[in-house]
Specification:
This protein is an alpha/beta fold. It folds into 2 domains: 4-311, Peptidase S8/S53 domain (Rossmann fold); 353-426, Orthogonal Bundle (Type 1 dockerin domain). It is built from 11 helices and 18 strands. The chain has helices spanning 28-31, 50-54, 57-65, 113-123, 145-157, 177-188, 260-277, 283-292, 367-377, 386-389, 402-412, and strands at 4-5, 11-12, 74-80, 98-99, 129-135, 143-144, 162-165, 169-170, 192-196, 207-208, 216-221, 239-242, 246-249, 254-259, 294-295, 310-311, 353-355, 424-426. The strands form 6 sheets. It has a 7-stranded parallel sheet with strand order 4-5-3-7-9-11-12, with helices on both faces. The chain has a 3-stranded antiparallel sheet with strand order 2-14-13. It has a two-stranded antiparallel sheet with strand order 1-6. Helix 3 packs parallel to helix 7 (260-277), helix 5 (145-157) packs parallel to helix 6 (177-188) and helix 9 (367-377) runs antiparallel to helix 11. It is globular, with a radius of gyration of 23 Å. The two termini are 34 Å apart.
Length: 427
Amino acid sequence: MQKTIVRLLSLLITAVVLLAAGTIGVSSAEVGEPSGTGALNNYLFGYMSWGVKAMGLNVLQEKLEKSGKALPEVIVAVLDTGLNTSNRYLKGRYIDGYNFINNTDDYSDAQYHGTEVCGVIADGTSSNVKVMPLKVMDEKGDGKMSDSARAIYYALDHGADVINLSLSGDDKNHTYHSLDDAIAEAVSSGVVVIVAAGNQDGDASLRYPANKDNVITITSVNKSNKLGLLANTGSVIDFALPGMNILAPHRTYMLLDSGTSLAAPHAAAAAALLKTWDKSLNQAEVYEIFKQHAVDLGEKGFDTTFGWGMLDFSDFDINATYARPTEPPTEAPTDAPVPTEAPTEAPTEAPSSYMLGDTDGNGTVDMIDATYLMRALANLNTPFSERELLRGDVDRNGTISATDTVLLRKYLVQMTVPYPIGEVVTN
């Protein structure tokens, strides 16, 4: 049974300021529409979030825009409550997404949490950065981890460079395997995955997916660089970014909100700007650059309250080239054991009649089948012969590969694949 997450939203609302026409003494004409660049910082108040300047994102954004180079499109997938496309401050800053709750193209946002998150990302980035709203939570902030998994695969299939998950569930034992696999697939594909730490005033290691070791987990701070109200802490925290009293788009106006949900998209914005600088950066490389531009807020170096600290990209050199670590040697060390027997040749055909994807041959396709495939690809022992394992050759090209595991995982989270997985086939 798919588990339902109760109150996925990690946002903690501490204050509300509605900036509708007349509320603060200006007309809507004075606030105005965004300029032709589509950037949110082209209106009366400058940048919405104070975090944009606090992190130096405005400086990095300006350097990139004035570099004279064509800026590539960078897509940030936002798994949340959808997007209010009628908000004028998001004009030109999004591409079409999808509603995974109702399986429709209607990703409208009745809760507006997703709209705020998208707004923070757009606020801190150049107009080449687009958000992709993927609705995985309803108007109450509830959703299923399996829908989030499906959304990640959708994001990968539609060119996402960064994924933001400002959502949280109580799952200290890591039981949501479908989302685990999807996140692993995203990271291995070079996509940066950002996650909010949650607002339970506790240990973020008890919150999922904040407690995963292959995501970048963000807690929140206020303007004084003090820990945000009720923001989670702990050993899984990577960075502490602006999350208190953040101004962001809401319905047709702007709203002042707080929480780690709004801190995470500041990291997503920073990652998107780094991807603008170098699209080939993977998550490990983005994380290393984050560390190089982190300012200590607590104990020297890493600590369990602020992680590596606050990010500051005001001195980032866009003319530099990222120095990737030296590749490990391709030759085996001289003292490595030498196989005494040549490996057996792979079979040329699978059993004559079998269920496609049923790697272990027990009559059903499940996560165990995907596990056997991954073990086989990692050269780990399985209780099945190579010929039997070809039941997992779901793309039917005659060999087991990483593509088969990807297709099988997509099938297991009820996504469409172009092969009859689960059906009995005959060679």
